[in-house]
Amino acid sequence: MITVYGKPDCTDWARSKAILESMGLTYRFLDIASDFEAGKRAENISGGQSSPVIVFPDGSFVVEPSDEELTAKLNR
């Protein structure tokens, strides 16, 4: 399953969410604004404080992806 670390009101997350949902993909969303541990995990994965951090089942991830980057990753 795809895991997303982000903030509910983030515009980058809104774009990524629309793509995931338009493709009918299931994901788990972890709110880094209200869940300290999730925020630390996202920081460890991404090496910084950018969001969203989208982690794929194979362990690969993207940080603040463009629509094109996320779509290309999902179509592989």
Automatic annotation (TrEMBL):
SUPFAM superfamilies: Thioredoxin-like. Coiled coil: none annotated. InterPro entries: Glutaredoxin (IPR002109), Thioredoxin-like_sf (IPR036249). Residues 2-61 form the Glutaredoxin domain. This is Thioredoxin. It comes from Pontimonas salivibrio.
